[in-house]
Amino acid sequence: MQFIPVLVLMVLFFVMMFGIGFILNMLMKTTWFPSYLFVIVILPVVVYSLWDHSSTLVSHLGSFQLVDYMTGVAGLAGAIISGWTIQKLRLGGYRMF
């Protein structure tokens, strides 16, 4: 596992989920919807799509590497921080958010 590609991948997932979450929050006037969407829809879809069904769920989750978990956490952090940012902007008086 090389450090630079993992760092770039984590930053990419963070920025991507932050941007998507920020836009969804502005359009739907919600605060935490992208975070819930990431945990309830995106993570299970990714796990299910990569599962070969010949192994158990626990062994399948154990087959993921540290890089996979780090990128997932970075994406979740981007979604959570986008909700936090929208919340702070609304508290600051910005009505368009």
From TrEMBL:
- InterPro entries per the UniProt record, alphabetical: YuiB
Q: Which residues cross the membrane?
A: 6-24, 31-51, 66-86
Instruction: For this UniProt record, give its keywords in alphabetical order, as a comma-separated list.
Output: Membrane, Transmembrane, Transmembrane helix
Q: Name one Pfam family in it.
A: YuiB
The name this protein carries in UniProt is YuiB family protein
